[in-house]
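Retry 2 of 3 after timeout on previous attempt. Resubmitting structure tokens to design endpoint.
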């Protein structure tokens, strides 16, 4: 439901849709989501500090009624209640981007920019803009809910941005930051101008499958029919059965493609988080890493793949609308919603 006066809503929508168009890089000094300087020495404490500052600015930009609707207890059930589908199917709480005026929308985008890499911010904007290409009334580019959990001044707090094909969770515990579940999706996945929402996430995996010998290809495809992402919107997940091939069975070229897939997802995260997750991936024994594929390996046909280690699961589901409707999610075993940090 949109409570924003129509002129303000049009202005906010224009900020999203006209600021560069689908696939453009719009993070620039003074633009939507001003660029946040990050370096290889950036720490999680630095990241947590930036997120805190922008979250407080966002809350301060709201009137009391919106601030109350955007705020939830850190320990409540709302923090782990999540989904990627449209709000008409999964009713959500929190304030939508469509209810914000231009300055409030800017504050929300500054919070998002502080929480992701520039590439991650661009991808979120692209996912939102693509909603405008769906049939009228099917989706709304501004129907994304902003929710803050707890007080950003406390040692434990978090926030979430969620709507159709997007569910990002940010949890801060004593300066340590968790960003899973991390859900990206897209429908449509392409535009008439040739833009693709998630090209290497799809193509690198297909290239890996096609580069295998026939014998190994028969093994990596663990079922002929595609399937939906297995973990769905479960609050916590554990390792799925190992399917396909272990990395120890892949050649150097195939391992490089698998590493590219992982790196493509990590590129959306801020430096401090991406470096930590990359280090975990690099430290994993090749026997503990697996890659499996289901469905067709022909473009624009339904397919699914997953990469799994002893610490994380990456699922990519392109099973709907003849392989033009992507769901992808990164899950950390024992770490989603900051669970591991909360136990220490």
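Retry 2 succeeded. Sequence:
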């Amino acid at each position: 439901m949109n409570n924003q006066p129509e002129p303000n809503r049009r202005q906010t929508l224009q900020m999203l849709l006209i600021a560069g168009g689908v696939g453009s890089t719009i993070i620039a000094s003074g633009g939507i989501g001003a660029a946040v300087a990050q370096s290889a020495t950036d720490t999680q404490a630095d990241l947590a500090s930036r997120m805190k500052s922008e979250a407080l600015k966002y809350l301060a930009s709201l009137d009391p009624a919106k601030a109350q609707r955007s705020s939830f207890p850190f320990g409540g059930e709302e923090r782990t209640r999540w989904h990627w589908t449209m709000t008409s199917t999964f009713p959500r709480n929190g304030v939508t981007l469509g209810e914000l005026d231009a300055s409030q929308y800017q504050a929300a985008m500054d919070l998002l920019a502080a929480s992701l890499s520039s590439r991650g911010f661009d991808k979120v904007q692209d996912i939102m803009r693509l909603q405008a290409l769906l049939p009228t009334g099917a989706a709304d580019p501004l129907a994304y809910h902003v929710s803050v959990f707890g007080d950003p001044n406390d040692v434990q707090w978090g926030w979430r941005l969620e709507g159709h094909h997007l569910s990002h969770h940010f949890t801060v515990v004593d300066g340590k930051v968790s960003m899973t579940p991390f859900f990206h999706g897209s429908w449509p996945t392409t535009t008439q101008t040739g833009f693709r929402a998630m090209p290497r996430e799809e193509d690198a995996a297909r290239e890996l499958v096609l580069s295998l010998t026939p014998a190994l290809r028969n093994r990596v495809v663990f079922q002929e029919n595609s399937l939906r992402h297995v973990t769905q919107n479960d609050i916590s997940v554990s390792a799925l059965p190992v399917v396909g091939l272990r990395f120890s069975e892949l050649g150097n070229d195939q391992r490089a493609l698998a590493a590219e897939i992982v790196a493509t997802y990590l590129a959306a995260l801020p430096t401090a988080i991406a470096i930590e997750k990359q280090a975990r991936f690099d430290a994993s024994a090749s026997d503990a890493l697996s890659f499996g594929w289901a469905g067709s390996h022909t473009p624009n046909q339904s397919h699914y793949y997953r990469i799994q280690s002893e610490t994380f699961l990456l699922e990519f589901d392109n099973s709907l609308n003849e392989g033009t409707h992507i769901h992808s999610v990164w899950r950390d075993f024992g770490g989603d919603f900051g669970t591991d940090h909360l136990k220490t």
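Attempt log closed. The radius of gyration is 20 Å.
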